[in-house]
């Protein structure tokens, strides 16, 4: 049974206490540096999923491995400082998520292994050489957003049958390929778009006001760790401006967002443990092929739909993996 608590003072996660063996391990526990976007109180499940995956592979907290977790709280400066700290202290592996964090890790070290979870194509964004043989010190899991976005827009259009115009909320540090894929998918499905570029979280309200003024039928939030770190603010603005909003991850819907479709982020972090495991046992990141997630989730919040006076089609509700009533 995995203990799902986290250490408040150190940020280390308990993998579990079962006396599992992982082979020949001696000396100090291996150190894993975990960089969490946002605040620990908002996103503990990702850290716990990584710890759960490591436990299932036989690693024992405090005996054979420890996770040293740090949280960026949405700050780019803090993100770079955390990664610099991990590099200077020579952790064995760094685990990051999101394109900005991967870029920061890549800039900070070319030798220390980095395992990532990202919601974009790491090849088209220039992070790795290829999916099969990433090269360098980076590897992990990627959701291939440019392929996923078409499905997302299809679901949004099905959920709102009269939809003909959407706003795309885009953070400037997100890969440009993500925005290009979203614009292309919308055109293919006959939807006009209004792109709203956000450089600072302080600009979110202006973006929602512009979307409301442009008479869009919905707002599609592009994947971004900075949006994730400020999910409560996004959801509050969508409610205040009465805009149906679509997200990639179910965690937004659990907090009050309307709709989401995308990979199971917890499943991706749990699978990321297999990369950490192989690297700690001697594998080179350059030889570990980047994987794509196998589980995708459609989540719906009926309370939010009711507040917006929307009646979602039965076809959406019947396919939903999670319905919040």
Give the structure's gist in a few sentences.
This protein has 325 residues and is α/β, with parallel strands linked by helices. It has 12 helices and 12 strands.
Can you describe this structure?
The chain folds into 2 domains: 30-143 and 264-294, Response regulator (Rossmann fold, 3-Layer(aba) Sandwich); 145-263 and 297-324, Response regulator (Rossmann fold, 3-Layer(aba) Sandwich). The longest helix has 16 residues, at 265-280. It is built from 12 helices and 12 strands. Mean pLDDT is 89; it is low at 1-14 and 16-25. By secondary structure, it is α/β, with parallel strands linked by helices. Helix 2 crosses helix 3 and helix 4 (145-159) packs across helix 5 (176-188). The strands form 2 sheets. The protein has a 7-stranded mixed beta sheet with strand order 7-6-8-9-10-11-12, sandwiched between helices. A 5-stranded parallel beta sheet has the order 2-1-3-4-5, with helices on both faces. It has helices at 44-56, 76-89, 99-108, 145-159, 176-188, 204-213, 225-229, 231-240, 250-254, 265-280, 302-307, 314-319; strands at 30-36, 65-71, 93-97, 114-118, 138-142, 165-171, 192-198, 218-221, 245-247, 259-263, 296-301, 322-324.
Q: Report the principal-axis shape.
A: elongated
Task: Provide the gyration radius in Å.
Answer: 20 Å
Helix content: 25-40%
The ordered H/E elements are EHEHEHEEHEHEHEHHEHEHEHHE
The whole-number mean of residue pLDDT values reads 89
Structural class: alpha/beta
CATH superfamily assignment of the largest domain?
Response regulator
Low-confidence stretches: 1-14, 16-25
CATH topology of the largest domain: Rossmann fold
The helix tally amounts to 12
Major β-sheet strand ordering: 7-6-8-9-10-11-12
Estimated share of beta-strand residues: 15-25%
CATH class of the largest domain, please?
Alpha Beta
Based on DSSP secondary structure assignment, what is the total number of beta strands? 12
Oligomer: single chain
From the N-terminal CA to the C-terminal CA, the straight-line distance is: 30 Å
| Total count of domains | 2
Named CATH architecture of the largest domain: 3-Layer(aba) Sandwich
């Amino acid at each position: 049974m995995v203990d799902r608590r986290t250490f408040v003072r150190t940020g280390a996660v308990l993998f579990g206490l079962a006396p599992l063996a992982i082979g020949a391990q001696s000396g100090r526990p291996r150190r894993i540096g975990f960089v969490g976007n946002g605040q620990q109180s908002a996103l503990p499940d990702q850290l716990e999923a990584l710890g759960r995956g490591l436990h299932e592979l036989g690693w024992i907290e405090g005996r054979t491995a420890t996770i040293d977790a740090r949280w960026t709280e949405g700050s780019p400066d803090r993100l770079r400082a955390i990664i610099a700290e991990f590099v200077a202290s020579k952790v064995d592996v760094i685990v990051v998520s999101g394109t900005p964090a991967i870029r920061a890790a890549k800039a900070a070290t070319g030798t220390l292994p980095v395992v990532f979870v990202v919601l974009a194509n790491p090849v088209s964004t220039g992070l790795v050489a290829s999916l099969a043989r990433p090269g360098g010190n980076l590897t992990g899991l990627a959701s291939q957003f440019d392929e996923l976005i078409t499905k997302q827009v299809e679901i949004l259009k099905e959920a709102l049958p009269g939809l003909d115009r959407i706003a795309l909320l885009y953070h400037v540090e997100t890969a440009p390929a993500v925005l290009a894929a979203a614009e292309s998918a919308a055109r293919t499905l006959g939807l006009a778009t209004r792109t709203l570029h956000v450089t600072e979280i302080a600009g979110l309200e202006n973006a929602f006001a512009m979307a409301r003024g442009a008479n869009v039928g919905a707002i599609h939030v592009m994947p971004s760790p900075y949006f994730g770190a400020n999910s409560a603010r996004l959801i509050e603005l969508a409610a205040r401006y009465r805009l149906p909003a679509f997200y990639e991850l179910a965690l937004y819907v659990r907090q009050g967002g309307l709709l989401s479709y995308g990979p199971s982020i917890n499943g991706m972090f749990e699978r990321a443990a297999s990369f950490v495991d192989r690297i700690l046992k001697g594998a080179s990141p350059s030889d570990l092929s980047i994987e794509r997630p196998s589980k995708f989730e459609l989540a719906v919040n009926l309370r939010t739909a009711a507040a917006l006076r929307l009646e979602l089609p039965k076809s959406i509700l019947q396919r939903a993996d999670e319905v919040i009533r």
